Amino acid sequence: MDCWSILQLPEDADQRSIKRSYARLLKSTRPDDDAEGFQRLREAYEDALEIARWRDDDEDIAEVSVVAPVTVAEESRHHSPHTEAVQQTEWLTPAQAARQLQEYRQVLLAHLQAAQEREFVNQLKLYSEQSWLKVFDHRQEWQQILLQLLHETRWSLPLFERVCQLFGWDERTGVTPEPAWVWRALIQRCEQEGFYQQLLAKAQNPQPWNASQLAAHLLLMPLTRAQQMALYQRFDAAEWQACEQLAETLAYQYPALLERLPDPDVFFWREFTPRPIAGNSWSWLWAASALALLLHFLPLLARKVLHGESIWVTLMLAGTWALIPVWVGRFLMPRWLTLSSRFIVRDVQLSQRLLPRRINPNGYWLVLRHGVPQAVLALCFWTALGALGLGTFVGVGLIGLFDHSRRGAERPASAWQRPLQSVLHWTRWSPAQLVFFLIMLGITVTCIFSYPGFPLTRPS
After folding, report:
1. pLDDT: is 425 or 356 the higher one?
2. Residue 384's closest CA among 302, 448, 328, 316?
3. Exposed/middle/buried for 17, CB within 10 Å: 0-12, 13-18, 19+?
4. pLDDT given for residue 327 in this prediction
5. CA dihedral angle for residue 393, residue 372, residue 430, residue 433, rounded to 10 degrees
6. Helix (H, G, I), strand (E, B) or coil at 233
7. Calpha distance 18→231 (Å, rounded)
8. Helices (H) then strands (E): counts for the chain
9. Which residues form a coiled coil (predicted)?
């Protein structure tokens, strides 16, 4: 949608009409209700106003006396050996036409390289109104030269809109120049530039307040490390999601814009995102708690079996009591996540110093965010099973950090035919973790039965 459609105006509207329409539309488009719509309206107003000013300048140029100062382009025309033929005839030989078009191209190129866009448009209009360039073949060749020139140089969106208006190019009506691939490249470039200018307007907001503005401010502005850290402290789930969406759009839809960003790695912020709780964490907590309780009451279960008493009540109690840590965890963990997110910057910095890259290659694990809950679990296992329980919990975790071989094996077609692979798939463990766990489980059971009151199976 172009600026005229947004402002609900014809393309020949003057500056006064543009300002009136903008003021009228502002009554129904407020920045606090529709920030995106307000931004589009503001950009359309500025673009339309710029086009109207250029149109007024063109009219002023047409009324200027012949004694006006000579421009660079006019100077080049006076020096052209074919100027007189061009002015007095409506035809040129093919060689003369090719040479004249190249001279025009050089003058327009000089304006673009000097960032003189208004002069470029004015000069282009003078060239295109010449009689010999209204001949179909010459005009087609002239448009192709101009199209290639735009493809090779830098310019603003208002300039491209003025060129399209001058030649009547419009995607909606199907009037487009050749070659088609150059035209499509220019259209994509306009879409890309429009997207970038919209982002830049959001990023340059002195007081960004919504998620999209904060994400644009983070990715587009040259912030110091300290400024980035201060910005992260303001982020919540919506801001992190906006960063993810914007980074993916830049990386996969507009990769050419990456070189214009302060940091081409648009995912640099990911190391500071909150770490969610894994979906199967509560199942693991229940299974581990139930096993710890069963081992704790193993002597009682053995006595009941020897005396012919039922053990189902004890087993059900162990399974039920194992839900208590799950309920407590589901209550406390969201609050811990909220609290830990407030000092995630310091947590990341501390983790980078203390955790070797070998065990934390992607920076996911955090000393405080993950360490505190793990320490609480370790204390629970020590309370239930003493030093052996604590050692089993810590050992399995440490092996998991260092050993990544065959972790989480593929699910087998038949669990009965490949039981080991099934266990590895379900537990997401490596073979070394499983072997260590089974060894420690055997040692713990042996000590419980062979050495009642063994200090390593009871907390001291």
Report:
1. 356
2. 448
3. middle
4. 92
5. -10
6. coil
7. 38
8. 21, 0
9. none
Structure tokens, 354: 């203390």
Mean pLDDT for the chain overall: 78
- β-sheet bridge partners, residue 175: 170
Q: Where are the alpha helices (DSSP H) in 69-179?
A: 72-78, 83-88, 94-113, 117-128, 136-152, 157-167
137's CB contacts (< 8 A; 6+ apart) are none
Can you tell me the distance from the alpha carbon of 155 to that of 193, in angstroms, rounded to the nearest whole number? 10
The predicted pLDDT at position 61 comes to: 44
N- to C-terminal Cα separation, the chain = 75
Q: For the purposes of burial, counting CB atoms within 10 Å of the CB of 369, is it exposed (0-12), middle (13-18) or buried (19 or more)?
A: buried
Q: How many residues does the chain have?
A: 460
Please tell me which residue, 284 or 405, carries the higher pLDDT value.
284
Q: What is the DSSP string of 169-195?
A: -BTTTTB--SSHHHHHHHHHHHHHHHH
Contact 29, 8 (CB under 8 A): no
Please report, for the chain, the start and end positions of each structural domain, with discontinuous segments joined by +.
Answer: 3-195, 210-272, 281-457
CB 138 within 8 A of CB 100: no
Residue 405: closest CA among 379, 435, 376: 435
pLDDT at 421: 67
Q: Would you place residue 64 in the very low, low, confident or very high pLDDT band (cuts 50, 70, 90)?
A: very low
Residue 75 has a pLDDT of: 43
pLDDT, tens digit, for every residue of 159-173? 888 888 888 888 777
In tens, the pLDDT along 291-306 reads 888 888 888 888 888 8
If one counts every other C-beta atom within 10 angstroms of the C-beta of residue 227, the result is: 13
Pick from 452, 455, 458, 297: nearest CA to 386: 458
Residue 416's pLDDT band, with cuts at 50, 70 and 90, is low
Closest by Cα among 208, 251, 245 to 39: 208
Distance (Å, whole) CA 215 – CA 221: 10
Q: How many CB atoms lie within 10 A of CB 144?
A: 15
Provide the pLDDT for residue 79.
41
The one-letter amino acid code at 153 reads T
- The Cα-based distances of 57 to 51, 53, 234, 294 in angstroms read 10, 6, 47, 89
The letter for the amino acid at 140 is Q
Contact status, residue 182 vs residue 190, Cβ threshold 8 Å: no
Residue 240 to residues 171, 250, 361: CA-CA distances in angstroms? 37, 15, 22
